[in-house]
Amino acid sequence: MERSITNSPAVVTERARIVWLWLVGDSARSISQQTGASLSTVYRWIRRWQEDGSVEIKWIQVLLLCYCCIQFSLTKVGEPSLVRRGNNPLNFLQPPLTLAKEVSPVSLTHVTCLLNTKTSPHTQETLQRVGDGIVVVVAASVRQQDLSQGLWGNTRTKCRALIIDLDHTDNINNCTARTLRQLDEAGMWQLSEVRVVVVGGRDEVESVLLHPSLRNVASAVYLAIITKQSSESIHYLHHNVLKEEVSERVKVYRRCLYCNAGDATVQFVRSERLDILYLSRSLIHGLARNLQGRRMNVVSVSLFPYMDYTKHYDRPGSTVTPKDSVDKRLLSVIGKKLNVTYNIFEEPNRGFGLATNGKFNGMMGYMQREEADFCTISGPTDDRLKVVNFVRTYPTDLVTLVSLKPTLLPRHVALIRPFGQKVWACLLVGVMVWVVTMWVLQRAWVWATGGHAVQFNTVLLYGWGALLEKAPKDPSVNMSGQMLVGWWLVFCLVISTGFRSSLIAHLSVQGKTRPVEVLEDLVKADNWRWGIDAWLLKGVPKDYFSKHTDPTVQHIHKHMEAYDSDEGLRQVLQGRFSLIDCENYISIIVASRYTDKNGYTPFFVSKKGFFLVAFFGYGFRKGAPFYTQFNQVTRRLEDAGIIKYWTADVIARRVRETRAKAELDTYPDFSTELRDTRELVLGLDHLQGAFYLLFLGSILAAVILLLEKLVHSCCMNR
Question: Number of C-alpha atoms within 13 angstroms, CB side, residue 592?
C-alpha cells in the first residue's frame, strides 16, 4: 500500500522547489544535491506533480517575479542583477526559495501578498515559509491595519512588491472591487515605487491596471491565467507516456504609465506557458526617462526672480505664460530632458497654503486635492509634508528688514564719539574715585604727622589735568600719595592716547546712526513702526509670527501692519518705519525703481535676516510617479551651480530692462562726495564741538563766580 503524503507546509515548500528546479532543466541528481532530498524522493515528487499538478508552483513563479522587481529596483547601473547559470533564461532565478536570504539588499525589504479566499491554505503557508520577507494578507478577512502595515512597512523594512490574487474566485467582480477599494483606503496610490503583480482572469485586465488605487504605480504587471486541457505523449524517466493533462498559459499585460500621449494605458506583452514564463527588465521596468509628452498641470504664484508670468485672461486663476525667470529656465530644461509639457495656471488668491482642520488652501490645497501635478515656489513645513512631497530647486529667500539708510550724526558730537557711553561713565567714576582716595590718604597723613593739608579742589584739578596731559603741581605729601599719582599718570597716558587717535578719525569722517538690522532693533527703537508685505501673510510667515513663542516675535506680530511692497517702501521713506519682506524680491524693486544712475538708494536692506523654511522648491502631490525624475534633474543643475547662476543673471537682466524702459533717475547724484579724492582740511564744521566746549566752560566759570560771590557775601555778613 502506497504511503500517504504529508501535506505540511515544509513538505509543500520542498515539493515546489524540487519541481521548479526540474522545470528549469536541472537533473534529478543535481536537484538531490541542492535540496538534500534522496534521489527516489525527487523522482516521486516530479511524478506526482505530473500526475496531479500543483497550484503552488504558480505562486512560486509569481513570487520570483516580485523578487526580481525588488532586485531590479535596487541594482545600481552597471551591476548584474543576479548571477546567471548556464544558457537557460530561468536559471538566473535559482534557487527560488532562498533568494530573499542570499541577496543582501532584499533583506531590508518585503513582498506583500494579497490573496483571495479560494487560495489553498498550503499556498498561504508556502508563501510565508519561502523567506522572511513575505507578508501574506487574505482579502476576505483582512483588517485595514494589517494591509496598511504590509504596504507601508516599518522603520526597518520597506515594501518593494505587491502580489494581488484575483484568480479562482466565485464572484470575481465583487472580489476585485473589494480588493482595490481596500488598496485605495490603505494609501496604495502614494506608493509609486512598489512593483505590482496581479494574477487573475482576462476580463479584469483594464479595470484593474487602470484603477485609481494604482494610478501612481510606475510598474504594474497583470498575469491572466488561461487553463486548457490537452493530450500529449511525453518522455518521462525513460518512458513514453500518453497523458491527458491540464496546462496553464499566461497572457502578460502591463500598464504603461505614459504611452497614451503621456497618460496611462494597458499593453499586451506576450502569451506563454506559465511554467516557462520569461522575465526581463522590459517587463519590470523602473523609472521612465521619457514621459512621452505628458502634460503637467502646474499651479504657481508670481514671486520674482523665481517665477514671473503674463496672464492670459484678466481673472483670478487664469492660465499664464512664464516670463524670463528661474522657473521658466528650469522648467524648460526639465521639459526637454523628460519630454513633458506644462499647463501653468495662477493660484487665484496668490496663496501658498495654510492648513485649517487638516485641509489646506492655496497651492497646497491643489496638491492635497490632486488638482495639479506640482506647484512652484513653496517650502516644506511639518503640516505640508503630510500632503506634499518637496524637491529642492533653489535656496530659500532671506526674510529681511528694509529701512532708511543710517543718517549722519551732528558734527558737534564728534568730540565725544571716540568713546562709548559706558567708557565715558566709567571714566567719570574713575576720576572721582581717584580724587577721593587721594584726598583721604593725604588728609590721614596730615592728621597723623601734622603739616599743611591738601585741598579737595587741588586734587580734583590735578586728576583732570593729568588726563589732559597738562597736570599741575603734584599734590602728594608722602610716599603712598606719590605711588597713587604714578599709577594715575599711567592710566591717563592710555586713555588720552586712545582718545586722541580716535578723535582724528571722527573729526574727519562724519559718523552715522546705527542701522535697523534685526527684529530686536525694531522693539528697542523709540516710536518706531513696522509692516510686512501683504502677500506673505498667506503662507508660512503668518504661521511663523502667529505661533512663535519668543516675546520679541510676539510683540512684532501684535503691532505689525500690512502693505504691498510699493506702499510699504513709501512708508519707509517717511521715516521711522521698517518693511519686512524677502531679500531678493525687495532688492529687485529697490534697484529698479529707487536707485539713481550712480547706484545710490535711500533704502537699507539688512543682511541679518532669518529663514522661514529650509529651502524653496517644487511641491508634488503625494505619490506622483515622476517625482524622482524631477528630483534627479534639479539636483544635477543645483550641484553644477547653474541655478545659482540663473538667479543672479535673471535679477541683473530684470533690473536693466526695468530701468531702461522707465528711464528712471529719481534721486540726485549723492555719490560724488564719496568719490572725492581731494586732501581733507579740517574746517569749522569739523571743529565746532571744541568751540561749544569753550562756550560751555565760560558759562560754568561765570556760574562759579556768582556762587563764590554769594558765599563771600554770606561770610562777610557774619
Answer: 20
Handedness of CA 45, 49, 52, 55 (dihedral sign): positive
**Pair 218, 256: CB distance under 8 Å:** no
Matching residue, cell 533704502? 603
Return the number of other C-beta atoms located less than 10 Å from residue 698's C-beta: 10
Bridge partners (DSSP) listed for residue 298: 344, 374
Q: Where are the domains of the chain?
A: 59-276, 294-396, 415-508, 683-718
Report pLDDT for 111: 61
Task: Judge whether 474 and 482 are in contact, CB under 8 Å.
Answer: yes
At residue 687, the pLDDT reads 60
Cα distances (angstroms) measured from residue 13 to each of 3, 227, 652: 19, 23, 70
Phi, psi of 527 (to 5 degrees): 55, 45
**640 CB-near residues (< 8 Å, 6+ apart):** none
Task: Classify residue 552 by burial, with Cβ atoms within 10 Å: 0-12, 13-18, 19+.
Answer: middle
- Mapped onto helix, strand or coil, the DSSP state of residue 400 is strand
31 phi, psi to nearest 5 deg: -65, -40
DSSP state, residue 408: B
Cis ω for the linkage preceding 406 (within 30 of 0): no
Cβ-proximal residues to 316 (8 Å cutoff; 6+ apart), any chain: 346, 348, 349
Report yes or no on whether pTM surpasses 0.85: no
Is 625 within 8 Å of 196 (Cβ atoms)? no
Residue 12: per-residue pLDDT: 55
What CATH topology corresponds to 59-276?
A: Rossmann fold (3.40.50)
Burial degree of 338 (CB within 10 A; 0-12, 13-18, 19+): buried
Q: Which pLDDT does position 190 carry in this prediction? A: 86
What SS3 state is found at 590?
helix
Give the amino acid at 591.
A
Question: What pLDDT does 263 receive?
Answer: 82
The residues facing 32 across adjacent strands are: none
Neighbours of 56 (CB within 10 A): 21
Please list the ranges in the chain whose pLDDT falls under 70: 1-17, 20, 23-25, 49-147, 149-150, 153-157, 167-174, 227-248, 273-287, 451, 662-695, 697-698, 701, 705, 718
Cβ(39)–Cβ(152) below 8 Å? no
Q: What top-level class would CATH report for the domain 294-396?
A: alpha beta
The secondary structure of residue 603, as a DSSP letter, is E
CA distance 510 to 136: 81
From CA 336, how far away is CA 340, in angstroms rounded? 7
